[in-house]
Amino acid sequence: MGNSGGISFDKLKACAAWTVVIAGTVLLCLWISGWFASTRQFGPPVKVMSFNVRYGTAADGDNHWDLRHDLVVETIRVFDPDLLGLQEVLKFQGEYLQEKFPEYEFVGRGRDRDPDSGEFSAIMFRRDRFELVDSGHFWLSETPEEPGSQGWDAVLPRMVSWARLRNRANSGTEILFANTHFDHKGREARDKSAQLIRQRLIDGQATPLILSGDFNTAIDSPPYQTLIGDPDDEKRTMTDTFRVIFAGSENEGTSNHWAAKRDGSRIDWILHSPEFVTVNAAINYHNLLGRYPSDHYPVQAVLRLGPK
Questions:
Q1: Separation CA 35–CA 63 (nearest Å)
Q2: Crossing angle of helices 65-79 and 91-100, rounded to 10°
Q3: What residues are paired with 31 via a beta bridge?
Q4: Is 13 helix (H, G, I), strand (E, B) or coil?
Q5: CA-CA-CA-CA dihedral for 183, 101, 163, 114, to nearest 10
Q6: Global pTM value
Q7: What is the pLDDT of residues 117-152, one digit of tens each?
Q8: At 49, is the secondary structure helix, strand, or coil?
Q9: What is each CA distance from 235 to 131, 162, 174, 204, 221, in whole angstroms?
Q10: Inter-residue contact 159 to 137 (CB < 8 Å)
Q11: 3-class DSSP assignment, residue 192
Q12: Which stretch of DSSP H or E encloses residue 268?
């Protein structure tokens, strides 16, 4: 029987196949479009590192600064953070790191009355990612605006350095990055330091906040609870980036005693306000044939800033 003008079965199959291809392509385009929209909505990742580099005049023998500063630089370079919080930095160490990382801007001063004296809780940030809007320091004491002031039962002056940064990659959104080092002896000083930071930076600000530091206390301590806050309270809470990724471990200590020691307390933290989400977090065990860049492991996190 001759063709009566209808569409053949083979043509119907071909049309159906092309329909599937076109539909699949449309769905793929929609998925890609949605992925890009989601990325734009949450902003590009921000890599954050907190690193106690050990003060450079310590009598550390084979671990003296002069014998490990290249490894410190390598450890930072491998992770390539956008934001870097440093503790125990003396002036000459800060100058060395600025020389090695010219693409970063440096914010810091010594904790003593003389701005060139004492350890810095310094901040470094990538100039291609952020523009400095404002910066400053305050001391963890009853007189926080007084340089070199020593608070409560602390045995040394302690301070916070902070920078307000305009995010070049996220429509000019501003963030606050703060870095600190709590006292290693004074329990009351650590408690009061956490309360002061909560008052001035967490409850006292609406800007998205990242807080890094060596807090010299465990995560079951009052200072940690003060900084994290109570989710049932109306006050702003903070998120522990490491705990988002890792439920808990007996081997998450961050003070290594120049060896591969991993037990003990996790006393170095990166915390963030609810405007951020944690993408990843880790303790950095970078070493060279068993030699470590510091007596602390640096800690690091990857964050995204959520929608406004």
A1: 47
A2: 40
A3: none
A4: helix
A5: 50
A6: 0.87
A7: 999 999 999 999 999 999 999 999 999 999 999 999
A8: strand
A9: 29, 21, 21, 10, 19
A10: yes
A11: helix
A12: strand 268-272
